[in-house]
Amino acid sequence: MARVVMTLKIMPEDVDVDLESLLEKIKENIPEGTDVRATEIVPIAFGLKALRMNVARDEAMGGPDDIEKAITALDGVAQVEVEMVSRM
């Protein structure tokens, strides 16, 4: 079975959101069977930074909708953007 890799950009609500702490909350709350791969903090503008992360899961689990919903529900998250979806 093929695996799907998705790159997500998570925008915080404010410049004061601790992205390291937010990453830990995301890892705890994403759907089971979804593996967090590479993560990085990227500057956006005026001190605002975003969290970019790659996640992988089996193709049979579907697209990124449930992942986006789980992350968006967390405190401190303003927006989740899917930048890329690819098969491995």
Question: How is this structure best described in words?
Answer:
The chain is α+β, with helices and mostly antiparallel strands and 88 residues long. The chain has a single domain (3-87), classed as Alpha-Beta Plaits, CATH 3.30.70. Helix content is 22%, strand content 49%. A hairpin with a 2-residue loop joins strand 2 (35-45) and strand 3.
Round the Cα radius of gyration to an integer and report it. 13 Å
Strand arrangement, largest sheet?
A: 2-3-1-4
Pattern of helices and strands: EHEEHE
**Overall average pLDDT:** 93
| Portion in beta strands | over 45%
Q: Which shape, going by the Cα principal axes?
A: globular
Q: Tell how many strands the DSSP assignment holds.
A: 4
Kindly report how far apart the N and C termini lie: 10 Å
